[in-house]
Sequence to fold (125 residues):
Amino acid sequence: MSVSRLSRPYAEGLVAGVLRYQRCAACGQAQRLARHACPACGSTDLRWHDCAGAGTVVAVTEVRRAPADAWRALVPYTLVLVDLDEGARLMGHGAAGLAIGQRVRGRVAEAAGHRVPHFSPIPPA
Ligand SMILES: [Zn+2]
Fold:
């Protein structure tokens, strides 16, 4: 997995076992994806925060063809896009059977030797 200067704090969070997202220190907007500048106000003062992990599934797919040899033993596996309650969006692995609109909680898990976000359903209250 390649890590850029932009995504390094996120990758370091995975190693530390926490999911992180960016928030603009000037206007407070959570960044859906990691950026160098805030699309709302133009500030470059974007800071990384740990997230609580809860969110809502906005897309689901099942991977049937491994993107690399290291992932071959995992197929088929579920990938999800999740809108975190903090306002950011993360992609991660998901429990089988997840559906759009479902409430989930993320944690860091091991997959094919990588640390990745993994989302599991939050049971209805
Ligand atoms: Zn801003």
